[in-house]
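Help needed: design a sequence for this.
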């Protein structure tokens, strides 16, 4: 990427990360903080933890579509203001109802889809995949840092202080947006990065994509439900206070990351993604049942957490890759939008279902519920088709080129499996085998300078 593209992508990734960092930091310490609040019950605690996922999931596609009309900067700043106000409400609240209201408002600042569209505005087609990968790495890194930083911050400034920190981070994000992120010369519809309303029906009817949507839903439902009971389990079985649990999460995350890397390499290098994917679902199910049946044994608890987070990291890397491989040409942005909404709805369902199960049947029952969700996921994953291992390439074309002739010519290029030309965007979308793709020949056909 050129310097201006790297600056734009890095600054927008920073905006993404400062927002997500605060959200994720709450996870490992929230249940312990919320328990003594006025009106608190396990169900309401779960609702408070997960409700930001509901508002985020419902509003992120509308936010992205509205940004095409009023501008990216306006929508991102407005979303960050909502996030900051929600954080302040949660910080000042002494009742669980106030925290629920604040968390809902945090999620209503659903700027994720807008940021991705902005990245697309500021990067060339040939560099967009790298730019999106950088944003994705930032999101994954924010999650891992937050799990360790959350308990540390809670020990120093309290959980209410973390909510105040979220507000400060939102203000920092606004500063980055106003003074660092470049303004695009023109707003374009990028079907590889944005939701296209006319494509929603076809995406929602695509069975293979729906399998992946269910996967990210189940993954984040089990994660959110788990954080309603795991902190108390670590206190009871390991004698580690909420503020000191970073000492557990840090080695668990390091080991899980070390286990993740070879799994991803094997899946991609030897083209056995489905086998690794199904095996990872089995590991998630096994880790939940280990916690359900072995919660009284320290070693079992640590082993189960390590396995869960290793599998979680594999899924967080694999699922977006599979969305790209499976989504129809020119519809990746729409498929990704539905996928992201499914993730946030999973957070919401994990919170309310986990809270209700905990309140009705006790802490251990939450692991049984999460294990049941994973077992339900298993046949959905096992019946998926073998991925094609094709990747998407986007090329700019000369508007004067005949689109039908160009599409036919591009399909004859070595390594190209599919090709379409979208004339109003002046782009050609290709599905290619990267090992055989003749990029120079494809570019020579487009007529673009």
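Sure. Designed sequence:
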């Amino acid at each position: 990427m050129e310097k201006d593209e790297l600056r734009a992508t890095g600054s927008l990734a920073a905006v993404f990360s400062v927002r997500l960092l605060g959200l994720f930091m709450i996870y490992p310490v929230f249940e312990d903080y919320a328990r003594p609040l006025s009106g608190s019950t396990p169900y309401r605690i779960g609702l408070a933890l997960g409700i930001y996922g509901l508002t985020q999931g419902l509003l992120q596609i509308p936010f992205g579509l509205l940004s095409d009309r009023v501008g990216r900067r306006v929508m991102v700043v407005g979303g960050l203001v909502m996030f900051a106000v929600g954080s302040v409400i949660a910080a000042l609240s002494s009742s669980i109802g106030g925290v629920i209201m604040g968390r809902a408002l945090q999620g209503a600042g659903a700027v994720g889809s807008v940021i991705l569209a902005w990245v697309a505005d500021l990067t060339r087609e040939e560099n967009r995949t790298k730019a999106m990968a950088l944003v994705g790495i930032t999101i994954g890194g924010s999650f891992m840092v937050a799990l360790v930083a959350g308990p540390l911050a809670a020990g120093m400034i309290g959980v209410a202080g973390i909510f105040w920190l979220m507000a400060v981070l939102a203000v920092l994000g606004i500063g980055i947006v106003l003074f660092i992120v470049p303004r695009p010369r023109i707003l374009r519809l990028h079907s590889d990065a944005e939701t296209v309303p006319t494509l929603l029906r076809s995406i929602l009817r695509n069975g293979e994509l729906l399998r992946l949507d269910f996967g990210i839903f189940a993954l984040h439902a089990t994660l959110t439900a788990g954080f309603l009971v795991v902190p108390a389990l670590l206190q009871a079985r390991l004698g580690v206070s909420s503020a000191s649990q970073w000492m557990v999460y840090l080695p668990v995350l390091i080991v899980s990351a070390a286990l993740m890397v070879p799994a991803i390499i094997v899946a991609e290098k030897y083209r056995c993604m489905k086998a690794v994917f199904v095996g990872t679902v089995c590991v998630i199910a096994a880790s939940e049942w280990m916690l359900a049946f072995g919660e009284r044994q320290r070693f079992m608890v640590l082993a189960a957490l390590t396995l869960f987070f290793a599998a979680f990291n594999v899924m967080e890397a694999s699922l977006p890759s599979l969305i790209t491989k499976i989504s129809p040409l020119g519809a990746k942005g729409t498929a990704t939008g539905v996928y992201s909404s499914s993730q946030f709805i999973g957070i919401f369902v994990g919170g309310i279902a986990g809270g209700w199960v905990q309140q009705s049947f006790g802490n251990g029952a939450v692991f049984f519920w999460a294990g049941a969700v994973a077992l339900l996921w298993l046949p959905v994953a096992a019946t998926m088709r073998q991925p094609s291992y094709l990747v998407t390439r986007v090329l700019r074309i000369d508007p004067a080129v005949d689109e039908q002739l160009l599409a036919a010519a591009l399909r004859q290029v070595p390594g190209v499996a599919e090709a379409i030309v979208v004339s109003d965007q002046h782009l050609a979308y290709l599905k290619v085998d990267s090992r055989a793709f003749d990029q120079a020949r494809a570019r020579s056909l487009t007529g673009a300078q």
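The first strand starts at residue 391 and ends at 396.
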